[in-house]
Amino acid sequence: MRLIAPLARRLLRLIAVLGIVALAAFGLMQASPVDPVDAYLGPQLAQVSPEQRALIAERWGADQPAAQQFGLWLGNLLRGELGWSRVYNAPVSEVIGTRFLASLPLLASAWLGATLFGFILGVVAGTREDGWADRWIRRYAYTLASTPTFWLAILALLLFSVALGWTPVCCAGPVGMTRDEVGLASRLHHLLLPALTLSLLGVAQITLHTRARMLELMRSDVALHAFAQGASRREVAWRHGARHACLPALTLAFASLGELFGGSILVEQVFAYPGLGRATVEAGLRSDIPLLLAIALFTALFVSAGNALADGLYRLIDPRLREVRT
Description:
The protein contains 14 helices and 2 strands. The chain is mostly helical.
């Protein structure tokens, strides 16, 4: 019974969040000046008669009032049907599954790199307050925090792919080859630069938060007692400070999953990486409402799962929180 009530509350909150996200996403799409039928037809619009255009709108239900369209979509969703993607001419569930599997290595490697690199930099900076390492790491973190993701991606592409030729210019594999024909080494080669660029997005926040927690520890009585016993700053930092700072770093890393997904949209667009982020842009430009709504719900579910995982790990690492909540 102790677990059922919290799980039920969390499930109800998740359903409420998904409902609000779906309603907000649908409202924004209705307010968009892009007409779904015109966006779907594109350059062929001039070759289609008004009667044919009206037939397409009727078939999609786009000529119905907004409330009726949302009710129809919600009814299909409750029956487990996400609809049909007009851009990819395939079931929405299939598009999301395929594209998310393509984005997963990029998101996972970027998340892991940002967490580890940011945590190490934060520990090093917090151990030596106002030292040369602290000053340089802070400048580096502030510079990263104020750098737009798409600008950083374009700069990396021009430098490493165009000028130096170290990494591929685009895509998740060589152009003209199917996914099954691309080997592991080639996939990693194509993944390297997008993953490095995306990982830099989350480094600054984790570094600065970890540094703040390290400074708190290094100024505490625990550190003073350890120094009095002859421990060096490095020993105090790694024996006491790292554990003290890992909780906020871990929580922040999971809480930033939404930001990471938002960054992946820009990075995948710059590198022409065929993942879920690029599918989001395609669906937005061509007003693919079923696909956009499904991606919005999937993203909300993805971020909520990350927050729930962070909360569970928090309680696992810190027994005091476990006792308070039980």
